[in-house]
Design brief:
alpha+beta; 13-stranded antiparallel β-sheet
C-alpha cells in the first residue's frame, strides 16, 4: 500500500501507535493521581429513621453499623458515596420495637440484611455548601431513586477534616414493599444520615 509515493509498512504503523500511547499515558496517570478513597467510619457513622403512628407519635430508631466508602475525584471535582447499612444492627427504645422493624413487616432483615445507598456524583462545592443530592437506595431487594438534602457543615475550621457529612430526606414504605398497617402507620419514613470518614486501609489510590 502506498500513499503519495511512500510505502506504509505495518512496523511503521505500530511504532506510530505506540508513540501516541506513550504521549497520552502521562495525562491518564495525572488524572488517576487525583482520585482519593475514604472509608466510612463505622464507629462514628449512623442512620436514623422515624415513622409516625397515627400521624402524631414518632417511633424512632438508629442503624449503628454503617460501612462503605467515599470516592473523591479531584479531576472532576466530584465525589460519590456508597453506604452499606446492616439492617440487623438497630437500636430503639424497646426490644419489641427492634424485633418489629427487623421483621418481614418492616425491613425484613433476615432475608435482606443489607441496605445500600449509592449516590450520584456530588460536586465537591455542594459537600461544602449543602444542597440536594440524588442516588439509589436498595431496601428489601428493591432499588429506587431517592433525593436527600445535604446539610451545610457547621464545624470549626481546625476540625473541618473530621467534620461528618450529614443529610436528610424521606422515603415511602409502600415503594419498598412495606404496605401493612396503613390505617395506623404513616407511609412516610424520615431518614437522617451522619457519615464520618477515615483513611482507607489498602487503598488503591495513587498518592
Amino acid at each position: 500500500m502506498t500513499t503519495k509515493g511512500k510505502i506504509w509498512r505495518p512496523r511503521a504503523a505500530f511504532l506510530f501507535g505506540f508513540a501516541v500511547l506513550v504521549a497520552l499515558q502521562p495525562v491518564a496517570v495525572r488524572a488517576e493521581q487525583r482520585v482519593d478513597y475514604l472509608a466510612l467510619d463505622g464507629e462514628k457513622s449512623w442512620v436514623d429513621f422515624e415513622v409516625k403512628v397515627l400521624w402524631l407519635v414518632g417511633v424512632r430508631g438508629r442503624f449503628g453499623s454503617v460501612h462503605g466508602m467515599i470516592k473523591v475525584d479531584h479531576f472532576r471535582s466530584a465525589a460519590t458515596v456508597e453506604a452499606q447499612i446492616d439492617a440487623n444492627v438497630v437500636s430503639m427504645r424497646s426490644k419489641s420495637h427492634e424485633e418489629w422493624v427487623k421483621s418481614p413487616e418492616f425491613f425484613d432483615a433476615e432475608h435482606y440484611p443489607q441496605i445500600l445507598f449509592v449516590s450520584d456524583p456530588i460536586p465537591l462545592k455542594r459537600l461544602q455548601n449543602g444542597g440536594e443530592i440524588e442516588g439509589t437506595l436498595t431496601l428489601r431487594g428493591i432499588s429506587k431513586p431517592v433525593r436527600l438534602n445535604l446539610i451545610k457543615p457547621d464545624c470549626p475550621g481546625e476540625s473541618a477534616d473530621n467534620c461528618p457529612v450529614e443529610a436528610e430526606g424521606s422515603i415511602r414504605r409502600s415503594d419498598f414493599g412495606m404496605s401493612s398497617r396503613r390505617g395506623t402507620l404513616s407511609d412516610k419514613v424520615e431518614l437522617s444520615f451522619s457519615i464520618a470518614t477515615k483513611p482507607m486501609n489498602g487503598s488503591s489510590a495513587i498518592p
